[in-house]
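Bench log. Compound arrived from synthesis this morning; before running ITC I wanted a structural hypothesis for how S-adenosylmethionine sits in the protein. Inputs:
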Amino acid sequence: MKTPSNAQLRLQSLDDQRLRLGPQTVHLDITNACNTDCVTCWDHSPHLDTPQSITWKRQRADPRRLREVVDDIESLGGLEAVIVSGMGEPFTHPDVYEILGDLKRRGLHVTVITNLLAADADEIIALGVDTLLIGIHGATERAYLDFHPSWSPAHWQRLHTTLERLRDAGRRDKHVQVICRTNAHQLLAMVEQAHRYRAHRLNFKLASLAGGTQAVAIDDRQRLTLLGNDIDVARHRADELGVVHNLDVFEAQVRAGGALTAPIEDIGCFLGYHYSRITVDGTVLYCCNTEVVVGSLATGERFSTLWTGPAWEDLRARLRAGRYFPGCVRCGKLNQNVKLSKRFRERFGEQRWQAATGTSLASSAPTTAAPDVSTGRPPSLHDVQQALARRGLKVLP
Ligand SMILES: C[S@@+](CC[C@H](N)C(=O)[O-])C[C@H]1O[C@@H](n2cnc3c(N)ncnc32)[C@H](O)[C@@H]1O
Ligand code: SF4
C-alpha cells in the first residue's frame, strides 16, 4: 500500500482530530527593530497614537535559542517550511545570515518577508533563500519616500541596485504593495516595475489601518479613480505583460471601502495541524492572529509539549466548532484556509466538512459572503453587500 503523504496525514488529522505530525510551516519573528517607518505600519508608523517603546523595539531572537526551537519542532516530524519575518525588519538582525543558513542546511523551504534595504543580495543568492516577499509600496522615488518618510533618495537607489542584482542572478521574488493615500495612484507603474524585475507575482493589499494610521487611508476620490479606471488599466497591463497579480481581490477590498471581512465562517479554520508563529519574546501563536496565544517558550516550556498539549487541543476543538476570535475576520491565512477547506471537502464530503467547521446542514441564510470555493476568488460586491446587510452593516457606495 502507498504510504500517505504528510499532506494526506494532516488532512486525516483535521477529520479525526488525532495528531500525527508537527506543523508544516512555522513563522519565526526574529526582530522587532526596523530600519524605516512605513506610514501604514502597525508598529513603526509615525502616525501611531501610541508608539512602541524602545525596549520593545530592541527585542530580537537569539540564534542559538532559535536552533534549539527548530530542533524541537523537527523532532515532531513533518516540518517543511519556515517564514522568517518580524514585527520589524528581519535583515536588521545582526545574525540573520547565520539563522537563514541554519534553516537552509536543514533542507527547509525558507521565505523572508522584508523591505530589502538592509539585505545583502549576494548572501541571499549564495544561501539559496527560496522566496523573498519584498514590501516596496511605491514605483517612483516621490511615492517611495512618501511611504517611508525617514528615508532619502539613496535608499530608493539602493532598492533598485538590490532588485537588479537579484533579478540578474535569475531569482524571481514576490512584490508586495500596501496601498494607501501616498501611493494609490501608482498601480500601473507598480505593474511595470514588477515586470522590469521579473517578479514571480505582485500582491496588492489595501492597507488595514488602526491606532492612528487611518491618517493615510485612501480618500473617496482615490477610491473612485481606482474603481473607475486604475485597477482595470493595471489589470490589463499586467495580463499583457504576464505579471501574476491579485487585482481581483484588491478590487473587492477597495469596493467594500475597508468593510470587507474574511468570510471565515464559510471557509473554516484548518490551520491547527499545519502552522504556528513564534514571536520574538517566545510567545507561541496558533496562527498569525496575536489574540490566539497557545503558550510561551520564555518560561522554559518546549514547543513540542505545547503542540501536543491541552491548550493547543482546546484551540483546535474551539475553531473546529466554529467559535472564532474577533481578529479571525481579518484572517491573515485566508488563502491557506481556502485551499485546505477545498481539499478537505473534496476528500471527505459535505457532512464531514460541516463537522470540521462547526456549520450545520440546517443553517439558515449565511451571514458572510463566501469566495468561490473552486477558484478561491473573492465574493462579488453584491454578495458582500447582501452578507453585510444581513449583519445590519452597510457598504459604502
Ligand atoms: C510588518 S511587515 C514586517 C516585515 C518587513 N519589515 C516588511 O516590511 O516586509 C510585514 C508585512 O506587513 C505589511 N504591512 C505593513 N503595514 C500594513 C498595513 N497597514 N496593512 C496591510 N499590510 C501591511 C508589509 O508590507 C509587510 O508585507
Ligand atoms: S519595513 Fe516592515 S516593519 Fe518596518 S516599518 Fe515597514 S512594514 Fe513596518
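What the model suggests: The first strand starts at residue 25 and ends at 31. Confidence is low (pLDDT under 50) at residues 361-367, 370-377, 390-397.
ITC booked for Thursday regardless.
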